[in-house]
Amino acid sequence: MDILIYSPDGKTAAYETGLAEHLPQANIRGWQPGDTAPADYLVLWKPNAEVLQPRERLKAIFNLGAGVDGVLGTRGEGAHRLPAGVPLVRLEDAGMADQMAQYVSAAALRYFRRLDDFDAQQAQAQWKFQKPNRLSDFPIAVLGYGTLGAHVAKALKTFGFPVRAWSRSERQDDSGVALYHGDAGFDACVGGARILVNLLPLTPQTVDVLNANLFAKLAQGAFLINVARGAHLVEADLLVALESGQIAGATLDVFRTEPLPADHPFWHAPRVTVTPHISALTLRDETVAQIAGKIAALARGEAITGIVDLARGY
Ligand code: NDP
Ligand code: OXD
Question: Which of 55, 151, 229, 232 is catalytic?
């Protein structure tokens, strides 16, 4: 079996070594320009068109991340580059759900416990009581109730927040998270929320979803936590909403242009926290183990999970 690994920076050695430990019988190579040789499996992140050329024996393409917009494009424009009939498989959790729950919980608790206000007071050497928020006044809406969104929503619930979540199709569980779906459920999910968390995949339906229209549906002085993709957010709308006070603060981990350009207004916007796409890192050991397990299952003729529905875009 031949496995071909592609990374835009050409650094594939650690994945080659890791996969070889799980699949000692496989021939594993890193992609070099001009490599059009057969491969049974492709493992990649943000591929160029050349690596996606139809390849003899190709059985599956594994994306080194949960989001596949790096393959399909922001509006699905890259889907035609995929070799016909070859499944695209995304990462499922692989250690990212816990990281995401930690990051979002930290940001939400910081807003709920008014730590930003106390930081501002400390800068003035002020010892001053601030009225605490009440959990019941702090509903959190989570957009996306998939692998990561559901884990995050349930983690937020453990602190006592009223948590709502939104998905495309109807979901049911006994977590206590109030579940909404589809266009009809959107307003009920986000209406009056004090914190909005975005964990949607980037698809033609979800691009620009974080916009002025949505901000106006939230509580006055709501907070935004965007940990999905930069192209979900209409950046100019957020700057206006911060200026007006409709949005009181934003924690942003993802951006339309990454790295965030040095002259971008988010760097210095008051009450905007910028992190460099680290809310949930791709953990190499967990990732390699998951992909190797799926390759072994496919080789045995078994079905696997995590296959992207190209029509839905995620
Ligand atoms: P999943 O596919 O498991 O979940 C996606 C969720 O979004 C599902 O609940 C799905 O609904 C819902 N959804 C999709 N489209 C729509 C729509 N049009 N309307 C309403 N709901 C919709 O993805 P993951 O949870 O694994 O990952 C989510 C995203 O997180 C990734 O696509 C990626 O962009 C981002 N991410 C960011 C990272 C970071 O470090 N910042 C790290 C990892 C991921 P349904 O349940 O009906 O299918
Ligand atoms: C992912 C990411 O989608 O790292 O996995 O952003």
Answer: 229
Ligand 2 pocket residue status of 66, Cβ below 6 Å: yes
Same domain, 163 and 269: yes
Which ligand lies nearest the alpha carbon of 279?
Answer: 1
Ligand 1 atom showing the smallest separation from residue 228 Cα: 35
In-domain check, residue 314: no
Residue 112 shares a structural domain with residue 53: no
pLDDT digits (tens, 9 = 90+) for 153-207: 999 999 999 999 999 999 999 999 999 999 999 999 999 999 999 999 999 999 9
Diameter of the chain measured on Cα atoms: 70
Instruction: Tell which one of 148, 166, 209, 260 to mutate to probe ligand 1, the residue whose CB is within 8 A of the most ligand atoms.
Output: 148
Beta bridge partners of 175: none
Q: What six digits make up the tokens of 183?
A: 């266009």
Provide the domain limits for residue 16: 2-94+282-300
Model pLDDT, residue 150: 98
Distance CA 70, CA 83 (A): 16
Question: Following DSSP, what letter does each residue of 62-120 receive, concatenated?
Answer: EESSS--HHHH-TTSTTGGGSPTTPPEE----TTHHHHHHHHHHHHHHHHHTTHHHHHH
Cis peptide before 259 (omega within 30 of 0): yes
The sheet carrying 41-44 orders its strands as 27-30, 2-6, 41-44, 60-63, 88-89
- As a whole number of angstroms, the distance between CA 66 and CA 4 comes to 19
DSSP letter (8 states) at residue 227: -
**Across all residues in the chain, what is the average pLDDT?**
97
